[in-house]
Amino acid sequence: MKLKKIAQCIALIGVSSTVFAQEQQAEPQRVEITGSSIKRIAKEGALPVQVISKSDIERQGITSAEQLMRVISANGTGTNNMTSGNNVFGADADRLVGGAAFASLRGLGPSSTLVLLNGRRVSAHGTSGKSVDLNSIPIAAVERIEILKDGASAIYGTDAIGGVINFILKTNYTGAEISADTNVTQEGGGNTRRASLLVGKGTLDKEGYNVMASLSLDKSDILRSQQRDFARGYQPNRGLSPDTTGTPYANQLSGAGTALGTGFKLPGDPNSYLQASLLSLTGKCDTIPGMSQYDAALWKNSTSILRSTYSCAYDYGGDYVMQQPVEHANLVSRGTIQINADTKAFVELTASRAKSKAELTPLQISTSIANKNVYPVGGPYYQDLSAYIPSFDNTKPIAYKWRASDLGNRTQETTSDNSRLLLGLEGVVFGKWDYKLGVSTARAKADTTLIDGYAYTDKLYAALASGIINPWVAPGQSQSPAAMALLNSTKAHVDLQGGTTKLTQADGNISGELFQLPAGAVSVATGFDLRRESYEFAQGVDATTILLAPGNANLPSVSRDIKAVYAETIVPITKNLELTAAVRHDQYSQIGGTTNPKLAFRYQPHEAIVFRGSVNSGFLAPSFQQLYSGQLTQELPNGADDPVQCPLHPGDPNYCSLKLDYKTGGNAKLKPETSKQGSIGFVVSPMKGLTGSLDIWEIRSKDRILNRTVTQVLANYQSLLDNIVRNPDGTINYIQAGWINAAGSQTRGADLSLHYDTEFSTGKWSFALDGTYTNSFKYHEFENQPYQELVGNFGTSDLYLRWKHNASITWSRGPWSVMGTQLYASGYKDQLPKGDIPPGFNPYVDAYITYGLSATYTGFKNWTITGGIQNVFNTDPPFTAHNVDDVVGAGWDPRVADPRGRAFTLNVNYKFN
């Protein structure tokens, strides 16, 4: 097949890879492309599908699905990776999930991206129960990845609003090969290693059977913030300084009945203060590692009482784990029998286990008279500040705020087990109709254990009140053996929580040519999808008894049945124009039915150009957690005002500064999130070897499923009146927080793809660029609120960058192949400091640009050796001054950047004869 003909085929299917250009076949083969149920000859398709081949993955040194998401420009820039995802704050954080990574096409969230394995669904993460954990995907066994950048609910049902990522594994392999990968950082920490074995026997066309298996073992080392100079939270000249006064050397707190009283003044200073530190008063905050003088200017609060001016601050943002230690084991096995020329049956088993450790900073404890954990008068470490603060009363106990470093980092270990058994039948009936049938069962289980840094609240408070523990350990000193023994006796080493999701599925479809029109054959497909989904979640211990332990209410086993039927047809109107129509109806046993159509066209006025477009609707069914998780009742620690009555009765204790109860948990009244979307674009091949495509897309969603805090409910009370539950006398009984259907969002942009293949006397050259331009992402929580534009602006959950791309240049000649890559993510407006802005402060975060280089050699018999460098110029993540309480990463943002720096990769593959 000539290069020009290959380029035309690529143009017609709109793929963003040269993978099909490398496959030359004497006879055209009917294939199924992600996003359609109709098997067709590849050159007849017209779908905006990006294809990433196994060789692309290996040459870029990608060893995990999370790294893969960074090179997909259509993937969002959000809190879906293992660094920011497990540390993110706020209502939208999935605190149940440990050690998981997710995809988020178009930045619509993991739940709006459908992840498939060989075209079929797999179980969602065991603890979350919402989305597929990418760590469960056996990357070592992946043949290619197809990314559909279009809504696909008309084909696949729920979750496909943002698009579909289909991981396609090897399915018919003969021989044996072993591979070893290593990825080592120049500056230490964060190294990864992998070993894999692939074996197969039998050929379907000659022997009538094939059996194959793949086993891979992966290990990723920990990377700490202290191992990278850019990860520092104390850079006040750039607008960044820690705002926490929970320090390893405690700050004293004011309060009635304590040594500092309700506030204190210093001689000659009319202001009243609430906190004090001996190190701050003596200018020695920086004598303790990670501590600094609290920067009151950057965090000033213009009230009559200044809280932290004479306190020390702690760089807790610079004390995070930037890459978790993870161990993976993945098994893929498949057996296929060719029953006859038209029928084959197969059984496929995939299984994986992942172990990860998430570390958070040590516990921050604020003691008080009410909690009976203040430092006692007469204790051996009583810190008398009367020499500095005249009003200090050394006859009273000391309240303080302390970072309990001696307890260790809060460490959670999560073990995730995933498996799927699939029985399938595929073939041809009546000589021309392709069919497939499948029955599968899948299970995902995740368990989280607290292994260090957590303590039982009552035991710890009693230990602090004893006075044996010293919250003011001087530089170079340590706790006494008795104090350490007492602290260790309070620790909670427990199985915290676990969840299990199960998926049982039967599916099938049939496709073929129905009849002939003057312009060609009318092709149709119809199919069914029957699923039972179930989920259960249990706390291994009452998390409320453990200080700052994460957790949720138990959710006994719940299940739901989904019945779906769908149909698709491709109608050639003329020789150059064809229309595609699809429709699917899903019936859920709890939330009812939904019907979603799709209409697309492909117009080819000339062999060198194709126009294409689609309009469709989509939906996202609420998860079990969102619907049914148990209700937890808690009390607002600082109180709140009744938003309706307090303005009418200012100062009335029945309505103002109330100690309110609030509830969080599931909402059985949630409706599915829905969308309307469309795209239009073209693919051109103006010259031999050159292919380009541009697709403009827009997605409008409504009834977005969001988790709202009690503060957000009160701030939007006019739209959430039912969430403020009142007593008969009109006073507030409690606030119902948790999951709601919000208003919606609108996003639009364009995907650009350019590929050029040519050959000179120097060898073969390939140039490629895949980029995504997001013109707008507007969001409003309630219908009566205006839309907010998020593109190019700082956000606490997702960032919506204007432009992202992955570009590459590849040269090959004989046994050699060399690839150079560039990853680009545009900058955005930074979060401004909450106080004074330093002179010269840069309110913009710079673009993040990294380069990679790799070389592959196949000159040794049976060997393939690939070596490379990631981040060739050792580019640091761009600086950002955001508040770490909003998004983790002191001085950098894990949603955008890879903290590992320059890394050296090596992949060695040996095929046995």
UniProtKB/TrEMBL annotation:
<dbReference type="InterPro" id="IPR012910">
    <property type="entry name" value="Plug_dom"/>
</dbReference>
<keyword id="KW-1134">Transmembrane beta strand</keyword>
<keyword id="KW-0798">TonB box</keyword>
<feature type="domain" description="TonB-dependent receptor-like beta-barrel">
    <location>
        <begin position="390"/>
        <end position="872"/>
    </location>
</feature>
<dbReference type="GO" id="GO:0009279">
    <property type="term" value="C:cell outer membrane"/>
</dbReference>
<dbReference type="InterPro" id="IPR000531">
    <property type="entry name" value="Beta-barrel_TonB"/>
</dbReference>
<dbReference type="InterPro" id="IPR036942">
    <property type="entry name" value="Beta-barrel_TonB_sf"/>
</dbReference>
<comment type="similarity">
    <text>Belongs to the TonB-dependent receptor family.</text>
</comment>
<keyword id="KW-0813">Transport</keyword>
<keyword id="KW-0998">Cell outer membrane</keyword>
<dbReference type="Pfam" id="PF07715">
    <property type="entry name" value="Plug"/>
</dbReference>
<keyword id="KW-0675">Receptor</keyword>
<protein>
    <recommendedName>
        <fullName>Iron complex outermembrane recepter protein</fullName>
    </recommendedName>
</protein>
<keyword id="KW-0472">Membrane</keyword>
<dbReference type="InterPro" id="IPR039426">
    <property type="entry name" value="TonB-dep_rcpt-like"/>
</dbReference>
<dbReference type="InterPro" id="IPR037066">
    <property type="entry name" value="Plug_dom_sf"/>
</dbReference>
<keyword id="KW-0732">Signal</keyword>
<feature type="domain" description="TonB-dependent receptor plug">
    <location>
        <begin position="46"/>
        <end position="164"/>
    </location>
</feature>
<dbReference type="Pfam" id="PF00593">
    <property type="entry name" value="TonB_dep_Rec_b-barrel"/>
</dbReference>
<feature type="signal peptide">
    <location>
        <begin position="1"/>
        <end position="21"/>
    </location>
</feature>
<keyword id="KW-0812">Transmembrane</keyword>
